[in-house]
Amino acid sequence: MMNIIKTAAQKGAFLAPLAGISNLPFRLIVRSQGCALAYTEMISANGLVRKTAKTYEYLKTCADDRPLGAQIFGADPQIMAEAARIVADSGVDLIDINMGCPVKKVIKAGAGAILMKNPDLIARIVEAVKKAVKIPVTVKIRSGWTHSSINAVQIAKIAEDCGADAITVHARTADQGYSGQADWKIIAEVKKTIKIPVIGNGDIRQPQDTVRMLKETSCDAVMVGRGALGNPWIFKGIAQKCAGKPLNYLPDLEQRLEMIQNHWKMESQFFGDKVALKSFHKHILWYTKGLDSSSRFRDLAGKLKDKESILHELNDYFRLLKISKS
User: Active-site residue 101, yes or no?
Assistant: First the structure.
């Protein structure tokens, strides 16, 4: 485990397991820009054990999608262990246990971030998963359930004692969701307390943030989540910054349009045009956010219902952008 994390960390940042985002096409896109380790979207342990076809879709991968971590969530140690065996048999490089998701649906099932309130159950889950598989097991946690119950250090120590090979700390509390500011001091405290690798997560929006997090927390690796939405190039920038090179990673208009088209093409190839059309709307909005006159295009793109119309407007929008820049 030390080798997977440390080797990957030397090459660049990691992609977080983002629900509805971190599918195979997106993972391949960020890898093309220097992402050193990627995780699947979080996968229901119950769904895997019940052999739900949709759940198994999340395990789709390919030879270029390496190293790959699969993240599972659940609240029953034995079901989590069985799900871990299924995932390990699929050929991934490591398994990550989600103990940080604040989404109501996950919380109601007793999984995700609500596990931060139950250290004994956390211990039983980590022990069960570790016994079930031979590949490395990591655990992703939050700072705590609320600001008055921050216990990331305690939970990280329990996970380490139960055999976890690394810990990822999203430095927000569960009740913060994805709002407010991440408190990196929590990551630093966890790093001081445990001996296994610590991966820092939260508020990595530009390459400079990575260098700052590494310096302020001494974490072993950095994980990028929402900072990669519409901006897969951030991984290239992080690699440049960490290598002490001048930053030269932002795409020109031609490269940005090419990336959008390539990403959509991959989504269509993997999932079919109908699914891709539905899922790719959000990516178009992220890719064009902040560009000149983007609000009109983004409003229009949100209303169009067929691939040809959206691609026509997309090409037309970028043509006008190029004219205005010339």
Answer: yes
